[in-house]
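chain below, 246 aa
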Amino acid sequence: MPGCESFSADNGRLGVLVLHGFTGNPASMRSLAERIAQSGYSVELPRLPGHGTSIEDMMTTDWSDWSGAAVAAFDALAQRCERVGVVGLSMGGGLAAHVAEVRDGVAACVLINPLVKPPVKEMIDGLNALLDAGLTTVESIGSDIKMEGSVEASYDATPLTCAASLFEAMESVNARLSDISAPTLLLSSREDHVVSSDNGDDVVEKVQGPVERIWLEDSYHVATMDNDKELVESATISFFDRVMKQ
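prediction:
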């Protein structure tokens, strides 16, 4: 899809991995990635498998593909950089947490409205009932944006088997949050119609390293494209500068 390509920048010894969300693509994170690169960091913003092309492509992928791509991108950055941080939105936040759980070398984490816990049992039961009934997709979760005229280039439907894979994986991600020792910045929208704020509460309660939380008062879920975009970008860069340029 036009504008949904991966982004890469090679700016030396400090690196940042940028991760987009479920059914989304690099377009939602491109402005942030470019700002980070302009601040002197090497940057990798991969297009996750099955994303940014067609929903049919996505339906052939699952968490193992997305997490595998995220870890591989981190490893590639770590090979050419002395220190590497990670930043992710929504599922990208869950992926960033996963990378920090399985790789000791993560220097800093920025989690933007992250998904880091499975939904309530009733929602899982409802999803399984839809799958049992033969449904393959439900309505889109994309473009939860308060700013008028700002539209996310996400898929126009949500593939249920992919959602089931994501929710199952959150059991493990949540269970290992205490393995994260890197300093973490948590950016939470006060009103979010996709990921509940108790996901962020779990980050505050369970992450072993120091956690700083900033509440976003004028954005919905896709805060990187919303009214608080400038705050998200400046706070992220300031945090990486403070933690990684010591």
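The first helix runs from residue 30 to 38. The longest strand covers residues 83-89.
thats it, cya
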